[in-house]
Amino acid sequence: MNREKVVFAFFIVLALTLNFGFVLGEIHNANHHNAFELFAAIVVSLIATVLKFGDRTHIGAVLLATSLVADLQLLLAAGVWAYADYVSLDGLTENVVASVVSLSAGALLANLTSVILLMVETVMIRR
Amino acid sequence: MNSVIYLLLRRLRWPLITLIVVYAISITGFVLIPGMDDKGQPWQMGFFHAFYFVSFMGSTIGFGEIPYAFTDAQRYWAMLTIYVTVIAWLYGIGTMLAILQDQAFSRMRARQRFRNAVKAIQEPFYLICGYGVTGSLLVNKLASRGIQAVVVDINQQRIDDLLTDTLPMAVPALCADACEPDILTDAGLLKQHCIGVVALTNSDEVNLAVAIASKLLATRTPVISRAESQAINDNLASFGTEHIVNPFESFAEYLAMAIHSPYKHLVYDWLVNPRHRPAKIGAHQVQGTWVICGYGRMGQALHRYLGAHQVDMVVIDEDPAKFGMMDDMVLGLGTEAVTLQEARIAQAVGVVAGTASDANNLSILMTARMLNPELITVARQNQRYNERVFQAACPDYVMEPAWIIANKIMLLIKTPLLLDFLRQMGGQSDAWAQQLIERMREVVDDQELDSWSLTIDQQEAPAIMTALTDRQSVPLGVLQVDPRQRLDALKAFPLMIKRSNGLVLLPTTDTLLQEGDVILFCGRYRASALMQWTAGNYNVLRYVRDGFDGASGYVWRWLSKSYRERRKMSHEIK
């Protein structure tokens, strides 16, 4: 058993599940989307990215890229949310909630790709 | 991505993860702990404010309690997290600084820089392994001719020397073991611009490793290697190393030539050494008995070469094991008068101080000269720092391995034709060489005699090619005329033409040029640039050959053609 693999797979899958949990619900209803969940998704996704640093393999490079995409999307979502809540005069409107959720849904796709790549790698190893 | 960034990121993994986790916990704490706004109402801190506060708290900037004054519970949490975040930051920055100062990391960075510098080279270059005395001489010579070099040496001191040497161009250098094929690859061995590998390290084994790796990895790249022992010499030759330079053999050959055909030796010396010897030296009396002190590698090589020309020799060596290896041998060092007298120094014509110790060599020189002031003296200089003393002792010949190897390699690099010429010269008489020396002296006097080759093809001589395809005849003489004023001769003359059907030695000025000729010239280096002008510009070529500027444009050419035709017609009518 490779402990590095365990830790990495844990974070990759956790990033996906947290992300999924956040996205789940009506797209414009703020009550269906918890800020804590988004925060947790960002933290886990960042850790997953750092874990891929320094991996010279091709699949490692692709995983790094997908994690970076997820980070970018999630951070953008958080940024939009914070902007609407504290800076914008309109406050947290349904439109803003919809764009926050759709941004994190994009991250969900990236995280899904990561998990698929992880599965492909696992299947190919056969041991 | 390059390996340096990989290494940096890999080492920074744990500090970064620590930082993320610490931040996440601190932020979560602030979001969960109930606060109070300025009116005393319960207030919950959002992620936005929590992240803002933790950011400036962690970096110890500390803007205060924002947006409202904290409750005691919040202060309690802030007190705990402030230490944790600061420690996390210190851990991260400390690791980063440690990596930057790490030896392995800086070596890796140096290698990365070197690799990039080599990758950026877009011109032909030589890969030189070993930047010792010979290597630095060679790199200097190459750089002054505008030829790029790449240097690998195992000693950081020498690489630092290279960086402080004032070379006219930037020479990428790496401190690494040239035995490793990876290093050679990084140094551009596989690049198409790499036109040669030169192995000049102190160790024959390393030279062998470099040569064999180059031969296997880059089959077509020529390899020049230094070898001091015969076994390594044969080994190098066995797998097709193009040129093997043995300093002792080279010097023995050089000195033997000086003894049996002094003028040929002078021609060789003028063509090979930038600081050539005065022409009058050819008249020295050199036939007679030679005393050779030291029967090591150099002594043995000398004995072999001189023996081949039936020169009488007396050998002095202090090693009794070598005693009796030949007829005329004296046991001793040669530094004392007794030994030299036993070797009949008074009747000898020359003495060779060829031991491995510089002090002994100088002592032999002085003692021998005292016993026989007419002697021709040859001294072997082992250490470069003794140059001043050897100059003061002024022997007729100084054998300094570094110079000999550097000159010989420059000869190989300058133009391979020169090697053909020198081989051809072997078949000529010494009187022929004497005439040649006279011509060379007229051209350059005491200045450096350079040599270069010119190929009659589309690339090097487009103007001559245009004339030849027009079925015009171009004599060799046009290249010896100053293109600025055809009545003046250039300070250069041709040594040889290489044609498909053989070699022409010292061709005359009316020799007609053919496509594919390769001409070897010698003379002042400046003349080569003027010569290229004639070879490359059709108008200049016509001026030089015919004495007037011909029509160059279409219109003028048509006008002069119709004028000529009209003149011809009027002639016929008359």
UniProtKB/TrEMBL annotation, chain A:
Residues that span the membrane, as ranges: 35-54, 61-84, 96-120
Keyword Transmembrane helix part of the UniProt annotation: yes
Pfam families per the UniProt record, alphabetical: DUF6394
Keywords: Membrane, Transmembrane, Transmembrane helix
InterPro entries, A to Z: DUF6394
Domain of life: Bacteria
Protein's name in the database: Uncharacterized protein
Organism placement in taxonomy: Bacteria, Pseudomonadati, Pseudomonadota, Gammaproteobacteria, Oceanospirillales
From TrEMBL, chain B:
Pfam families in alphabetical order: Ion_trans_2, TrkA_N
Alphabetized UniProt keyword annotations: Membrane, Transmembrane, Transmembrane helix
PROSITE patterns associated with the record: RCK_N
Residues covered by the RCK N-terminal domain: 123-245
Keyword Repeat (UniProt): no
Domain of life the protein comes from: Bacteria
Name under which the protein is recorded: Potassium transporter TrkA
Species, as recorded: Pokkaliibacter plantistimulans
Upper lineage: Bacteria, Pseudomonadati, Pseudomonadota, Gammaproteobacteria, Oceanospirillales
